[in-house]
Amino acid sequence: MKFKRFLWLGLALCLIFPQTYASAEGNSKDNKPAEQVVEENYHTVLNSWEKKGTGDASEFEASVSPSDFKIKDKKNLLSESESKGYNDRVFYWHNRDSVSYEVNVEEAGLYELAFDYYPLSNEVVPIEGAIQVNGNYPFYESRRIVFPADWKNEKNTFEKDRFDNDMIPKQKRIERWNTLTAEDASQLQSEPLRYELKKGSNTIQLTNLSGEMLLGKAYVKSPSKLPSYKDYAKKHENAKLAKTMITREAEKDYEKNSSYIRPFAADDSSAIPSSPKNLLLNTLGSESWKDSGQTVNWNVNVKKDGFYKLTFKVLQNKETGGPVFRKLLIDGKVPFQETSPVTFPFNKNWDNVTLEDEGGKAYLFYLSKGKHQIGLEADAAPVEPILHTTNKVMREMEELTLEIRKLTGNQTDTSRGWKISEYIPGIDKKLAGWADELEQELKYLRKLDNSKEDSKDMVSLEMAVQKLRALSKKPDQIPSRLTELSEGSSSAAQLLGNMLVTLPEQPLTIDRFYVHGDEKDVPDAEAGFWEKLIDSIQRFFLSFFSENYSASEAEEDTLEVWVNRPRQYVELLQNLSDQNFTPETGIKVKFSIMPEEQKLILASASNKQPDIALGISSWLPYELSIRGAAVDLHQFEDFEKFSKQFSPGAFLPLMIGDSVYAMPETQDFFVQFYRKDILQALGLPVPDTWDDVKSILPELQRFGMNYYTHIAGATGFKPFQATAPFVYQFDGDLYGKDGMKTAIGTEESLKGIQFMAELNTIYSMPLQVPNFYNHFRYSTLPIGTANFTTYTQLTAAAPEIAGWWDIAPHPGVKKEDGTVERWATGSGQSAMIFKGTKSKEDSWELLKWWLSEDTQTEFATNLQMLYGPEYMWNTSNLEAFKNLPWPEQHKKTILKQWEYLYEVPKNPGSYMIERELSNIWNRIVFDGVNPRSAVDDSVVAIDREIKRKMEEFGYVKDGKMVKPYPIPTIEQVKSWAGDENEKETK
């Protein structure tokens, strides 16, 4: 009987969830793996062209004027007078508009596509487009083509801050026409992209993804080849070697194609200039110049025609070791094959690298008299084959892991034996084959790097090979050893994943370079022994007197502000204050880097606290306020009016009763991320409710994909960010009315908790995902809920899918009236005033200035422009947020989600509710405990702990309530601002 029951249960489950219980051999032909839902990548397509004999077209070039473009809206075709000096009609290309044009070619083959363009926006939002040929994307990289803008420093001299240190200058976009030959946006290809055109008429379409520009002529041309050094030298065989030396400081007088390639203060006596006392911006690059494709062009004035040698004084201490690569550009072009690219080997010390051949003979570059530009472009193309193979192997690993989990029912019992090789024939050969492929790439990587020691990337690759070989010898043990294959921090997949992040990075620091004749004239790269010794002694003694944003006591008439952020944030904030706030108000301010935010409680207890703390976690003001250490901001007359600029739900964890002890400074958001390309290919809609999510799951899972919730992103402990939204969306609550008990035992709360667990127990969503960002990039989790951190990662570090992902509001629960409640948390960092402040009024004035729309907008824009897209500032000021240099549609989506921001209020025992909600989920999902039983057990533990903590803080005495503890609500916060006719909220 028991066997029959299990048999019927198994058959029922197979009928309900065929995609989960199907055998590895039972998949239908249309069950393509995730990466094949969209086009193949360029590497694969180029190889297929080579195999079928499709080669480069012979000499051909044609241009198409904007007047001949096929355009939907003729208003965007501008006149010659509006062309910014182009002397022809131009097309205003923006707002996801498309243009197409026809070109006739006499020969079928591979061609390059180029465009004249003029960037219009001063924002750091990139200008991106997509190219289709004859109605199709020929390869995935054609879905994103970047049109870079050129930048320069607003001033060529560096201004000084209050400590007499150099300040990074403001950036200015160079307004001019450029020509771009379509390239891989990741800049992993050594040459421009090639497109296959048929003989006769071809239609090419260019579609806007983001940004705006003027579009001039479009070109179709046969690919060009670089000459060899031998041919280059022969062309100038009558030139003579110049007998001169031109020295150029790298941090001065240059142009670049990224606003955030910036000068860097090398604290080193070998860098020129150098000071033991002050920070001088004496080099260029470092970590700000590591992305492939980033280019710097220096202006050089040559006084005599002739051959010159080039020597760069560099520091190449890449964290993982190994070489980095740069293309050499002279007047915007690579002079010959051997300089595409140039290798800069790993070296912990400064080094003079003269560009030379393998035999050590310096290359000679011909420069005519007059002005020239000498440039270097970061180039990761040499490691592209390794990245391609590694990506392929990792995708196949993911598929194999999914097959194994289907067969084993996700059971990893080490005492149970499996004959997995019978269900997946050839699994041992598959793993050994991966090891062979990766070993070949390891050999190639060692050829690129001639150093004696292996880099960390090589070590990761070698360890992954060893793990795969070990598993291939005992394939039947794989189900219980998945932590070695694809799961866990030391698995083969994780080692390869780490390498995929670090290997393409190309950081390089340049102090200066020399355009010269004889190498003997080039000064030594490193300072001498005695010079270094004297410098280090001076630095040691001066360190006792140097402030430089250290947390030291400020003068009596100066507000002291501790900031829990890195130096670049504090430096920018101090400069803004010195330029704007102090001149306007007369209030002096000293900003310092906070040692550790946990020390604020100790500093307050010893009366050594600052006036204001910025950038602190949202839980900390509550801990300080309940101990009487924080100023109630609600006492200020203009507080309620000022509070209207912020989301009401963000104040809840910062309150006790009607008192407010901090202001939200930054604000997180949980939205739904999705891959547009994959959802379009599968014909799936973007879910609006949880019911919609459930409806798309079968199709996703049929292709080996799934939906991600941030429950899977947490490890053993599930914080409020993962659990509380489900309670709130089902009209539940965490606290009773008087705050003395929990309300998670109510029917509404129980319904939310049960649904939260069913997402894993019934709907087979992932239980644990260490890194959603990687899975999203590799298509295995093409949709899911995540926060600001994921948004920053995808914006700054996923160029291969930029323009093909989007965000939508968090899924919610649809109510009877048709509205969708999509409540989610969103606590960021906060700002507070200490009770021991020198002046409450002055501190409040500073807090208002800092959190105002104008200051937050200026700070956010400067931060991102100077330091790059990863320095996005998620301000809590709603009006300032609208001004951020982010895509407009994304801002609208986030603002819509913030209407449902409901951060968890605090009470002395709230940590126990958070812990028990996590325990409830674990007991239901892993132990199979009935939800009602799991919740009831936790309610007892929570209520007991709340009562104990309430007694500690004087709300309960001898088991009886002395005074109630009212839990803050959104309606309460909205009443401050007098909002009326608001939509109903919790």
Automatic annotation (TrEMBL):
The keyword Transmembrane does not apply. It comes from the Bacteria. It holds the Pfam family SBP_bac_1. The keyword Transport does not apply. Keywords: Signal. Residues 1-24 form the signal peptide. PANTHER family: ARABINOSE-BINDING PROTEIN-RELATED (PTHR43649), EXTRACELLULAR SOLUTE-BINDING PROTEIN FAMILY 1 (PTHR43649:SF27). This is ABC transporter substrate-binding protein. It comes from Fictibacillus phosphorivorans.
